[in-house]
Amino acid sequence: MATGVSGRRWGTGTEQGFCMRCGLGSPHTLPDHQIAVRTAQDAERSKPEVNLSDDDGNVFSIIGRVRKALRRAGQDALVEEFTNKARAAQSYDEVLQLVFEYCEVN
Hints:
Blueprint: E1 15-19, E2 35-39, H1 40-45, E3 49-50, H2 59-72, H3 76-88, H4 92-102, E4 104-105
Parallel strand pairs: 3-4
Antiparallel strand pairs: 1-2
């Protein structure tokens, strides 16, 4: 099999391409950006990292960061699932619990 710029193997069609620099999907037209390919299995195994250490603790900001992290990790199917659960949450703490379920928080 051929390999992409990142050295990951191209597979059989269950992959999702994304730019390692800006998170955009492929095809990608920015020449200095590298496209990495993750299989659906890779995406399920790893939780994306999200940083919650800055001053903005607004729940909508947190939800947006998690959505962005999930997209960049190629876990598009989880974006809507997380969003729906976060919207249905009854408290700020419940949203934070969801964040820890879907992401690695640093």
